[in-house]
Specification:
heterodimer, A: about 375 residues, alpha+beta, eight-stranded antiparallel beta sheet, two-stranded parallel ribbon, 11 helices, elongated, B: about 260 residues, eight-stranded mixed beta sheet, two-stranded antiparallel ribbon, about 30% strand, globular
């Protein structure tokens, strides 16, 4: 097999990363006896750094080489641990995304994809190690081969988890960063032709679909009655449009695809009389019976959760509750829908500590 | 809003704001969010706050209690000094964000611990939003290298590669990056991306276009906690690579 590789200067810091990984004293343990978990992790760092050099075609110069079989086996064992952490990170991604303040969401998704990328490139270095061991008829070749096979199978399981629609939609927000384009630009053959699902355009397609969905939603909403001039008329209009949006939600059967549930229709919001706070909730175009959503209260000044209102009494569309420490109020879509239906064409009242808040024009962009 | 601490009189590193001071407010809301990071088993906060403090954080102490106040004082004392150090060095990425009619500056500070702190505000008043370790920094077991890992990852995520061969260049103030809301919808753009100071982020202002070369100047505050662990890589640890090369005759393959 011939690989067509253009060797480039290390303009990206990966060769430095390899040097740092190779300088780890824990690697000495491979010469003196059974490697500790720390030494195995050090070997995994070398596999990852070497892998980036391979898939990006970087010349590591004097530091270049191939992982010996014992070290490659140790690296695989450490990577299996990292894979378990990745699986947990994928499982908790939606919750962590919800909890992340503005500015941290990118980091939550990028961290996860970088962990997956580390595994992918490490497989390139480990595959090379297995190939070398086979050519050398190394006695550890079979063990290395089996371990590598086992790791690949475990990665497949995590990939299935990562390719769920909800996870891919969250990861597609990284299209707004430079991460994916930068990786793609650096890939060399044959890796470029066999780019993994996060670099083959899948995330960009999903991102485009999401943008289109928002545009369609906007078009539908533009058919609602036009706004009227005047403060009182505007308030009345906002209340009516909010009620109409709530009544436009469609109830789905219990067996319906859950991926439909994440499609929001509008951002509904209310403002405190002193304008210091606002409450907001995303309202879906369709929902399942019993589906729960959250009303969140923020400070106007900095758009951060109004945690100082934790414990405040809330009455939202007839549902009474208290604000959580994160200034949230969970509610059932059905309850709000039924309230508005029963009071149609009335308003959607929100009171916090007995004070009524003013409904604002729904955000349907 | 319950304010836990105010840190007045921090240096403002922006070139256009020389001799100005910044004030940072750390609120109870920020505390409760950050607590998830400080107690996460994947983030090495123990090395900054000490095992006892992290154990107390895990107990979810009432922060108004005497014990709670001691923990607040310890944790925020460490963060305040690291923030001062990051602003003094400086090691900051600053950009303007806009949402509806509001506009504010967002600050990403790389702390000497290797964690990233996010602050937000207008003018000289900033609010602490969150702090966390990027995964690449969290898995680096040597504290002295964590900040370098964080810097590299931020560059890889937010600066576009340009030219042939592709390189990272210092973004101009006119460039912007897309901002999205929680459903991924584009809601605006971050403007005036400023890496302060370019050299500390690995950019080389003396080269044409100010490209990134990743040569990060030493940072004593980041490196003081541990002694020098190693300095030389050992290439002989790896087996010599058998290289399959493209030769003049494309069909012939040479083994090395």
């Amino acid at each position: 097999m011939t690989t067509f590789r253009s060797l480039r200067e290390d303009l990206y810091g990966y060769v430095d990363q390899l040097r740092e990984a190779l300088a780890d004293p824990a690697l000495n343990e491979f010469q003196t006896g059974t490697p500790s978990p720390e030494a195995k992790q050090a070997a995994a760092n070398v596999a990852v750094a070497l892998g980036y050099c391979r898939v990006f075609g970087l010349d590591a110069g004097e530091d270049d080489g191939t992982l010996p079989p014992l070290e490659a086996i140790a690296a695989i064992e450490a990577l299996e641990e990292r894979l378990s952490e990745l699986a947990e990170a994928v499982e908790t991604l939606p919750q962590r995304w919800d909890d992340a303040p503005v500015g941290e969401e990118d980091a939550v998704c990028a961290d996860l994809l970088e962990q997956r990328m580390d595994l992918w490139v490490a497989m390139a270095a480990l595959g090379e190690a297995a190939c070398e061991a086979f050519i050398d008829a190394d006695p550890l070749w079979e063990t290395l081969h089996d371990k590598l096979q086992g790791l690949a199978e475990k990665i497949e399981v995590v990939d299935r988890q990562m390719q769920q629609r909800e996870i891919l939609e969250l990861l597609s927000t990284l299209v707004g960063t430079e991460l994916l384009n930068n990786w793609r630009q650096l890939l060399v053959e044959p890796y470029r032709s066999f780019a993994p699902y996060w670099l083959d355009g899948t995330l960009e397609e999903i991102d485009e679909e999401l943008q289109k969905r928002f545009e369609q939603k906007s078009a539908w909403l533009s058919r609602l009655p036009p706004r009227r001039a005047g403060a009182a008329a505007a308030r009345e209009q906002a209340a009516r449009r909010t009620a109409e949006i709530i009544l436009a939600t469609r109830a789905l059967s219990v067996a319906a695809e859950t991926s439909n549930l994440v499609e929001p229709l509008a951002m509904l919001s209310w403002r405190s009389p002193d304008r210091q706070y606002y409450a907001a909730t995303l309202w879906p175009s369709c929902h399942k019976r019993g589906q729960e959503l959250k009303l969140r209260v923020f400070r106007t000044q900095d758009n951060q959760p109004a945690t100082e209102l934790a414990g405040a009494a809330v009455e939202f569309a007839g549902v009474q509750s208290q604000l959580t420490p994160n200034a949230e109020m969970p509610y059932k879509v059905d309850d709000v829908y039924e309230f508005v239906k029963a009071h149609s064409p009335g308003t959607v009242p929100l009171q916090i500590n007995g004070i009524p808040w003013e409904v604002e024009e729904p955000d349907t962009r | 809003m319950n304010v836990l601490q105010r840190w007045p009189d921090l240096p403002d590193p922006r070139p256009q704001q020389q001799h100005c001071r910044l004030a940072v407010v750390f609120s109870e809301g920020a505390w409760y969010h950050c607590q998830k990071h400080w107690t996460s088993r994947t983030e090495p906060w123990k090395e900054e706050f000490g095992s006892d403090t992290v154990a107390h954080l895990k107990q979810n102490l009432e922060i108004q209690s005497a014990d709670g106040q001691a923990v607040v004082s310890r944790v925020l004392g460490v963060l305040r000094e690291q923030t001062r150090e990051a602003l003094s060095r400086p090691q900051a990425l600053v950009y303007r964000s806009q949402h509806k009619s509001a506009s504010w500056m967002t600050w990403h500070l790389v702390l000497p611990s290797g964690a990233v702190a996010i602050l937000r505000g207008t003018g000289p008043s900033l609010r602490w939003v969150t702090c966390y370790y990027l995964h690449a920094a969290a898995v680096e077991k040597n504290r002295r290298h964590r900040w370098k890992a964080a810097v590299r990852q931020i560059i890889r995520r937010y600066v576009p590669l340009k030219g042939e061969p592709p390189q990272w260049f210092m973004p101009s103030p006119q460039e912007d990056v897309v901002l999205r809301n929680s459903e991924g919808k584009v809601t605006g753009r971050a403007k005036n991306l400023q890496f302060i100071t370019p050299e500390n982020w690995g950019f080389e202002p003396e080269l044409k276009g100010c490209p990134w070369r990743g040569r990060l100047p030493s940072w004593p505050a980041a490196e003081e906690a541990q002694g020098s662990r190693h300095s030389r890589s050992r290439s002989r640890w790896l087996k010599p690579r058998r290289r399959w090369e493209e030769s003049a005759d494309a069909d012939s393959v040479r083994l090395h």
